[in-house]
């Protein structure tokens, strides 16, 4: 299977949904992917089992604040500089590109990076969604050492970091990112195909494509998307307040949705750190990380990223279960509510919506 220009709209829609508000605006990733395919041709999509054990897999992603990455676009040279540095370090070239996070632009842009490098794209990622911090990846949860991070920015700087662990990889990479203007391209957890087995989340590119295609031509796009995701509907209403600030390489803030129609009289608040982290109603959590929480346009079911939230938008908030990896003790320690500073015991979305007719 290859990814061609005709696949990009569906991939972008699916990645926007999986981005849970983050991962960057899919429009920039889509334009980059289309241009790269026009220049270099379709990108082969390969399964992990197709790669030899010693093949180098390069997880690539943009790091930084989505509000900045929307304005400061990655250049073609960044991926090439990172690939050259990896070949210099390992003594052999990369064999495949993998999305570090399938959510948002970081799920679409790897198509462009793979095309530019003349490499296949691995049908996998390291999150099954989007998360804001470097250590919040499946490889860290699986116990692989985070001993190499390679970063490049739009100016042409290349930085190689040898962190002692995943938490230090976040601290150091974030500092470099802020120095670069709060956006950069990053390869972290460069690994062989043998190491990747059991340490990455497979099939996520094809899942994003399926999610994006679920609403194509649907008479009721919101219903079609909800059913495809197996999601609970938390509220349908109007955005009445949005507070955002860019600090420390992140977008942080809150968004408030007041219910309309059957949900009139209800108010849901979303806590944001690049992604939608916690949904609260009347002081009670309705959904929380690592489960996925996405805001979509009520009419079109198109996902709305955190940087695109605006007063007056008519939206629906959906939530559904994360990959089982994130519900393990190490997964919750890494990306559960307490990892983000919330004094909350993780409760799966299935439990939080049990008995709720909207769920």
From TrEMBL:
Residues 166-349 form the S-Me-THD-like C-terminal domain. Residues 7-161 form the S-Me-THD N-terminal domain. InterPro entries: S-Me-THD-like_C (IPR048350), S-Me-THD_C_sf (IPR024071), S-Me-THD_N (IPR010318), S-Me-THD_N_sf (IPR027479). This is DUF917 domain-containing protein. The lineage of its organism: Bacteria, Bacillati, Actinomycetota, Actinomycetes, Streptosporangiales.
């Amino acid at each position: 299977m290859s990814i061609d220009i005709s696949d990009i709209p569906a991939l972008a829609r699916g990645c926007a949904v999986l981005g849970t508000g983050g991962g960057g605006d899919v429009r920039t990733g889509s334009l980059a992917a289309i241009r790269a395919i026009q220049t270099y041709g379709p990108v082969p999509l390969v399964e992990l089992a197709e790669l030899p054990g010693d093949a180098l897999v390069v997880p690539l992603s943009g790091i930084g604040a989505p509000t900045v990455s929307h304005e400061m676009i990655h250049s073609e040279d960044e991926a090439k500089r990172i690939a050259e540095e990896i070949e210099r370090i390992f003594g052999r070239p990369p064999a495949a590109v993998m999305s570090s996070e399938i959510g948002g632009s970081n799920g679409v842009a790897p198509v462009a990076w793979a095309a530019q490098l003349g490499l296949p794209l691995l049908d996998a990622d390291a999150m099954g969604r989007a998360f804001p911090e470097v250590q919040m990846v499946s490889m860290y949860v699986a116990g692989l050492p985070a001993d190499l991070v390679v970063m490049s920015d739009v100016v042409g700087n290349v930085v190689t970091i040898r962190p002692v662990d995943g938490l230090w990889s976040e601290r150091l990479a974030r500092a470099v990112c802020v120095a670069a203007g709060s956006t950069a391209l990053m390869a972290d957890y460069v690994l062989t195909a043998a190491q990747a087995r059991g340490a990455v989340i497979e099939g996520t590119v094809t899942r994003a494509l399926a999610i994006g295609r679920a609403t194509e031509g649907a008479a009721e796009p919101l219903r079609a998307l909800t059913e495809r995701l197996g999601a609970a509907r938390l509220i349908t209403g109007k955005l009445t307040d949005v507070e955002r600030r860019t600090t420390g390489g992140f977008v942080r803030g809150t968004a408030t949705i007041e219910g309309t129609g059957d949900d009139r009289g209800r108010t849901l608040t979303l806590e944001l750190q690049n992604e939608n982290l916690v949904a609260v109603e009347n002081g009670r959590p309705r959904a929380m990380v690592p489960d996925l929480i996405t805001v979509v346009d009520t009419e079109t079911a198109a996902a709305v990223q955190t940087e695109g939230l605006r007063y007056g938008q008519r939206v629906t908030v959906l939530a559904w279960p994360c990959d089982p990896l994130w519900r393990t003790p190490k997964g919750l320690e890494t990306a559960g509510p307490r990892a983000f500073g919330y004094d909350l015991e993780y409760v799966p979305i299935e439990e939080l919506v049990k008995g709720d007719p909207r769920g």
